[in-house]
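Exercise 7. Predict the joint structure of the components listed below.
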Amino acid sequence: MTATTLRHRSLKTSSIALGLAMALSAPAAAADLVISNWDGYMAPDAMAAFKAATGVSGEVVVHATNEEIMGKLVASGGKGYDVVFVSSPFAEVLNKLGLIETIDHAKVPNLANLYPEAANLSHDVGNKFSVPYTWGTTGLCYRSDLVKTEPASWNDLLAPSDALKGKTTMLATDRWLLAAGQLAKGYSVNETDPAKLAEVKDLLISAKKTLLAYDDTTFYSKLVSGEALMVQAWDGWCNYGIAENPQIKYTIPKEGSDLWVDTMVVMKASANKDAAFQFINFMLDAKNHAWAAQNIDYKVPNKPAMESLPADFLAKFPNMAMPVAELVKFEQLRDVGDAQRDYSKIVSEIKAAQ
Amino acid sequence: MAPALAWLTALMMVPCALVLALAFFRRGIYGGIEYTFTLENFGLVLDPLYAGIFLNSARIAGTATLIAVVIGYAAAYAIAAAPRRWQPVFLFFAVLPFWSNYLIRTYAWIVLLNREGLITQLLRWFGYTGEPPSMLYTEGAVIAGLVYNYLPFVILACYAPLSRLNPELAEASRDLGASAMTTFRRVILPLTVPGIAAGAVFVFVLSIGNFVTPALLGGGRFQMIGNLVYDQFLTANDWPFGAALAMALIAIMLLVLMAQALAADRAAGRIAEAKADG
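Solution:
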């Protein structure tokens, strides 16, 4: 998800300090693997543990957004990277560009840990070129102590009650901003019909008048401070708010959500593909994948990992316990090809509207 | 001359030429660049939507410039009128904010203006119990941020001609019966036009291309041309269109700079006249 945002600003400073210490003590030279990931999106000691387990050394570089790493990969033909973490529509594009390698299932035995549904995702049925790392929904995150009635529909955000006017935020990234309108209208989150998109645009322009701000990165802290009372949010980020204030709750409107999936891919240009598959296999290990779920507060598509999560953690973050069957009912964001230009234009129109 | 020329070529002309070249290609279907020649990106710049965003950016930048010039000129005038030995101290304080990062200074405004921010808390402390005013994420907040950040440029630019102004000119004007207002309007102001023009151009050019302030203080609700260029490069992956927008922006900035150079030339003529007369 978080296509254009910095992730996990809230990740504990200690892990950042640890990461920094590791970066300083372990010079990047001569690593066997180069992995690009969002900052704080895996265990800070993952590479050390990987080396201890396999003898393969790896270097982690970070990208802030999907677009940033896409720019680098397209420009270099993928050279210089072995494993890259990207959201599913971008994995799809990398595959269409022929930049990523077919996943060799024999070399990634831990794929067996994935839920069967995670091997059947619409962007890549059978995990041919991508391996899901995290997945989740986009819904409404709100202050249950200050919002009188529990929101039930996207329209509760798009046409809020008087008490909520000026106290809501929406995501700024084009695909998710449009998704709120598309879902409210009952359309696909990949809708490209211009007439339907025009309706979505009008709806979102009228919603803008009641909005505090568009916000991709700090919406949960606005909830914590009380500046905003209801925000469009990714479930994992809503969890950062819940962690600070248990009165914050997450709900998926009745019209549904998108299903976002962040994936791991292996670059075709990698000189060390066996080690790359080894790394993916390592990440899919139940214990390592459970670390991700528990520390970055995102659902992971790993059955034994999810089953190992402690009950009090699931009680604190109810959306982590969402059944997989319900999750995969939602439609994934797909690459929309040429329609992307229409999407950006509509978003510009919405943001320029007075 | 040669090192300067090499510097300009390598760091200014070549990058600009590359961006310009980019604007003539097509966006590849997956966000890359397709190397077929097209003019459609420039056509798109003239689309009412994007032209409207240009005009709106110019309006916001223009308002910020006007306010910054009025406040900055008054501040520069006061500094220039202060005792000589205090002037460097005042100037030092005027530019002190530049010692900290632009982003941090902008975030400070968020801390001040947000609904649960310092101003609201201060109001509550004085016993105000109503709904706090919405100050952040408004056009006013964007303009305040731009004025605040670029004000020191105006102060410095206006202080230079004001401090060099020969006090005898104002004295002569008063002796000949002009009121203080007339002296200011007919003598002081015309002689300091180059400073005003330089300061105003700084504020306008930096404001119209700014994308950080509208993003942070406008909450993404105000699209300025800088945000649009940023979005084309970093979210829409439409580099050719982003390049065309950037070129249009550069063209506007060049026009403004040329107008300023013209104004400065004419004013220089006036100053030379005044000196010859004096």
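Discussion. Residues 205 and 252 of chain B are 9 Å apart (CA to CA).
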